[in-house]
Amino acid sequence: MSKKKIVTIFIIGCIFLVSVFSSLLVVAVDSVDPEFCSGNVADWTVMYYMCGDNHISYEVDTNLADLKKVGSSSKFHLIALKDQDGFGDSALYYINKDSVTDLNWPDEVDMSSPNTLKSFLTFVYNTYPANNYALFIKSDCGSSWQGCINDRQGDTRKTAKLISYPEFADILKDVTKNGEDKLDVLIFGPCICQALEAGYELSPYVGYMVASEEHMLEDLDKGHEYVLKYLETTWNLKNNTHMTPKEFALSLVEFYTPCDFPMFALYLYMVIVKKGNYGTILQQASDAITQFMNRRRNPNYHLIEQHTTLSAIDLCKTSEVVKAIDNLSSLLILHENDEDVNSALKYARSAVREYGKFYVKNRRSFLLKNFYLMLPMEKYAQNSFIDVYHFTDLVCNAVENQAITDACFDLMEKVNSSVIANKVMPGDDSNGFTIYFPDDGRFYNRYLWGEDPSVKYESLQLSKNSLWNEFLQVYLDIR
Fold first, then answer.
1. Is residue 460 domain-resident?
2. In this structure, is residue 93 part of a structural domain?
3. Interacting residues of 395 by C-beta distance below 8 A, sequence separation 6+
4. Structurally, how many domains does the chain consist of?
5. What is the CATH number of the domain that holds 183?
6. Cα–chain center distance at 370
7. Is 183 helix (H, G, I), strand (E, B) or coil?
8. Does 129 fall in a domain?
9. Residue 23 covered by a domain
10. 206-245, pLDDT tens digit by residue?
11. Does pLDDT of 180 surpass 80?
12. Ramachandran assignment for 125, one of left (phi > 0), alpha (psi -120 to 50 degrees), beta (any other)
């Protein structure tokens, strides 16, 4: 045999052995030892903070089963802290393909405690380091700037106790070493979390924030097609760990499907209480009541309709948005006695896209709160959160003051620059994130869940670094 043929056979043999070894390695990394991976710097560490000690407890088991389909690898750490509505059901898992490893965590924790969130993030950052980090927040009772993560503690609490955004920011400041090791992507599953106030508060420590301006649907509402795609996006990231944080944030929005979702009578009993297990008689009764209400001439008595959204925000650019809001606020305050400006503001506030209407406006009224659970009418719906861009655009088109018009154009440009992806229904005036603007001074600083909020609006960084708060007080005549 010639020397040339021997060399050729040798090269082909080497290629064959390399291909076999590579395929075996792929199988091996699909099931990894968490102790072996401890300290290994992966491409991505993805964390799930699954607060199910509330009405979405049933979702936790489904989410964990989905995550086990994905599993970890040497380049991809997948960790979940979960709590449900029983006692002693908290657990911290390192998730492998088709299995989990219990990482020795207390069996009952308060997920709405800042200490729990900080302990979880600190442990994961120190034990499973990565070039990039993503955090999924699962909970109910999303509350815009007022906080997130609702642990009912076995329904012993009379009102939702949430982690405030200043508390969240303090946690991330410590965990990320003052932003040196940023949380690259933060994903909120709760409702109405895509608020400028929240994003700006967290911006020194987070790269991209993915959330909804509107309420988020559950599988029980319209099916899996219209919920946030936890399984699909996490699986996609595991298979493409070279993705940048921006690419991952974009993918979360790309996988999402928005929809129109008209609310119906008896919704909370049928979906929240009965979890979809109700008979045809109740369905027929709900349909009849819903049709009756929505035929009424006065739209205030129609049942609310949701148009779901999802957006991704580059939080590094929110500081420019806040500067533009400060400039516009200053001009609006300066012209508080200008009839043209006031007329434009009233028009814009009445016509702007509002959010949070699944919640009742006045939860302090026991009778109204329980009545609203059965008939979620426009008249009593929460409406304190508005789309930033849409409001600015409405003011811009209605006012004659050139300085205010220029300030509006600048703000809209800054909003467009910070919103890197936005999924909405055709014709929906949702453009990326909300800002606080109650339509009535009586509801200023009113907590969504009945009591006073643990953090006042004035204490947020947006209020400290812009005059938006002062503008609200002038416009709503709060002295």
1. no
2. yes
3. 344, 345, 348, 404, 408
4. 1
5. 3.40.50.11970
6. 26
7. strand
8. yes
9. no
10. 999 999 999 999 999 999 999 999 999 999 999 999 999 9
11. yes
12. alpha
